[in-house]
Amino acid sequence: MKAAVPRFEGMPVHGAVVKLTGKATEKVGSLAYDEEVYFVVRGVVAKVAHGPDEGVFTRIHEVKASALVMVDGQAGERMLDEARMLADERFGIRNLFDNGGDQP
User: Fold this and answer.
1) Which residue blocks in the chain are alpha helix, DSSP H?
2) How many domains are contained in the chain?
3) Is there a contact between 19 and 60 (Cβ–Cβ < 8 Å)?
4) Whole-model pTM above 0.85?
């Protein structure tokens, strides 16, 4: 089951992205292209926008991070597994907000 993205001004929205901003993101440093990373984030949704790209709308959630910690791969996978199990137990939705490793 995939969470539906609500329509924008009557037009279908084909996806959603999360953009992290705020002072907490400044501590991340330099990341390499295609580098796999894991973060634990606390933030507030500061803005929601819709960007058309060749007639396809994408919902853009800007999250102002008040805390952001990069964790290693093992810890990150454990946290993801726990979050997936909780989503399944609470909502009956497996892999909520998880695209199975496919790049957007």
Assistant:
1) 73-91
2) 1
3) yes
4) no
